[in-house]
Amino acid sequence: MKDPTDPRKGLKGRPEDREAQRRVLKGEAEIVETDDEAIPSPEGVTEVIDTDYEIGQDNISSDGKVPFDIHNPVFVISATAILIFTVVTMLFASALEPYFTGMRDALTGGLDWFFLIAGNIFVLVCVVLILSPYGSVRLGGPDATPDFTMTGWFAMLFAAGMGIGLMFYGVSEPISHFDTSLAGPVVENGVRTDWAPLQGAPGDELGARRLGMAATIFHWGLHPWAIYAVVALALALFSYNKGLPLTMRSIFYPIFGERVWGWTGHCIDILAVFATIFGLATSLGFGAEQATAGLSYLFGIPNTTLTKIILIIAITGVAMLSVVLGVEKGVKRLSEINMGLALLLLLFVIAVGPTADIISGFFGNLGAYAKELIPLSNPFGRDDDNFRQGWTAFYWAWWISWSPFVGMFIARVSRGRTVRELLVAVLVVPSIVCVLWMTAMGGTAISLTLGGFTGISDAALELKLFQMLSQLPLASITSFVGIILVIVFFVTSSDSGSLVIDTIAAGGKINAPVPQRVFWCTFEGLVAIALMLGGGLGALQAMAVSTGFPFTIVLLGAVWAIFKGLHAERRETA
């Protein structure tokens, strides 16, 4: 362990060149802040890890016309593999569709128990840390102060975390679970073929409504946000407190030691890049599906694959502009705009929809969620295979594939918060917002359906939101706002993801040249297009699950590292 006054502590995770570092260590120069995006040194007494690794020591860089600063071999292997995958998928799109679908079904069907157990572990870890003395540890050191206001911080973590998904599933999932629960179990040849959660609520409208909302909240509440929180906490702890680069490999220093700077760490970071790319591509695919369907619904624009591709290209271009502007000017402003629009749409639906049902339903749905949480979390002894595998296992794999992206992004904007603040903000507050959103959107759809309107149940998933809004005042305006929300959530996810992938592929540097961010932003769009051509949403889901499975193992290892790292912090400040 290093003396907290050791000048090298201020250099951990920083992008200065080696000569400048040597001059500081010899007392010939002082540390000078040269970039607003450089990772600050820990403030106060922390356990800075003693390692000879210098950030960027494995990088290849150039200051030419197209500057770059990339980690070798993480960038080279990741970019090459993704390029080959994209080209092959586009060339053999029709032949690959059955393969993608089969891979998705095999992973969610055979490993559903594994995903459910892992999700439960992440929730329990967060609860234990919130209630334990470890919750008082401050990320960045005991004297660190937050970099962003609470409002800006919350807007960024929420918009990056689930925006597109909430728009796509806000109506479609509650109404789907309600319909299947009301119909009840369907058994053919001794096997259930229905999609109802648990045993459904056949013929019981109130019971089906409660179970449908509980199942929806289960997928958008504590479990997914716990996954994000674990990654965010681990990255923030080992970067801001331990002085290591802001990259996934740093989390595993307590486990692998100096080997994290070799091929062990290379594999972890490469896997993180793959998981992030394919997790983002899945969300971008959902966004393209819904935005295109909405444009067709409102303006008669053809809802074709070509339209979706054009939309992805156009929005990727906007995302590039946001990437160039950076976190403060680009991502933060877009996130706040989107949160404002989402809040207006939410308040509008509450005001003109079944207001009393929404308000009472919020508390009733929280109660239903609490009642069904353990049965829905149980990985064994259930026969609702379609729901458990097709919904829950896929969701958990999807959230986990997103976790490097969302977790690192949250870590980047959470310096100065305590462990307890981060976990409560990331775990509890967004979960409550998700409950309110699903209650307002999905609850309104269920009320309209019970009132005799069948358009929502009959519509395709991507059109259910617009069918629900069609039954409320100002339908054309609110539907257009819905499309704008999908598009801007699309942009915030893409630009945030580009910043994160670039950090990983640059060996932990968070101020790498802008062309690299543009490169990854372009690739996100290309991968989404390739997968749309190679099997649509089925292919997108398959790749999210395939990268989510191995990364689940990585996150389980990260849990042990978190406790070890927090224990050392408590010991230092005791």
UniProtKB/TrEMBL annotation:
Cellular component aspect of the GO annotation: plasma membrane
Report the domain of life of the source organism: Bacteria
**Entry's Gene Ontology molecular function annotations:** transmembrane transporter activity
Q: Which UniProt keywords apply?
A: Cell membrane, Membrane, Transmembrane, Transmembrane helix, Transport
Q: Tell me any Pfam family this protein matches.
A: BCCT
Q: Which InterPro entries match?
A: BCCT_transptr
Membrane topology for this entry?
Multi-pass membrane protein
Kindly list the places in or outside the cell where this protein is found, as annotated in its UniProt entry: Cell membrane
Instruction: State if Transmembrane is listed as a keyword.
Output: yes
**UniProt keyword annotation of Kinase present:** no
* Stretch list, region Disordered: 1-22
State which residue ranges cross the membrane: 74-93, 113-131, 152-171, 222-240, 260-286, 306-327, 339-363, 393-411, 423-448, 468-491, 518-537, 543-563
The entry assigns this protein to a family as follows: Belongs to the BCCT transporter (TC 2.A.15) family.
Write down what this protein is called: BCCT transporter
Q: What is the lineage of its organism?
A: Bacteria, Pseudomonadati, Pseudomonadota, Alphaproteobacteria, Rhodobacterales
